[in-house]
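User: I've been trying to design a sequence by hand for this structure and keep getting stuck. Would you show me what you'd pick, starting by listing the structure so we're on the same page?

Assistant: Good idea, let's start from the same input. This is the structure you sent:
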């Protein structure tokens, strides 16, 4: 009982409600800011270039080169010269 001070029971309920809304909004703002900061760093990074072996595999998958040429070029990329290109 407030003994005549304040707004009574409804004032207390309103104070509790606004306090919960304040803390909920503050916590939500912190979580959203953390998510936004995490996303901006990955967006600012330059795109990763494809490795030469990946590009070669893509060309083979598209049918631009045949199996023999793929194997020869792959061996060249890996430093082995077992299959010279064009034979």
């Amino acid at each position: 009982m407030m003994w005549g001070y304040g707004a009574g029971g409804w004032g207390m309920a309103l104070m509790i409600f606004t306090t919960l809304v304040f803390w909920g909004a503050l916590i939500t703002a912190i979580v959203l800011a953390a998510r936004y900061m995490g996303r901006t760093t990955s967006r600012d990074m330059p795109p990763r270039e494809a490795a030469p072996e990946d590009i070669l595999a893509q060309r083979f998958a598209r049918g631009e080169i045949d199996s023999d040429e793929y194997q020869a070029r792959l061996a060249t990329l890996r430093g082995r010269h077992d299959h010279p290109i064009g034979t």
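That's my pick for every position. To get oriented when you compare it with your attempt: Residues 4 and 48 are 70 Å apart (CA to CA). The longest helix spans residues 9-44.
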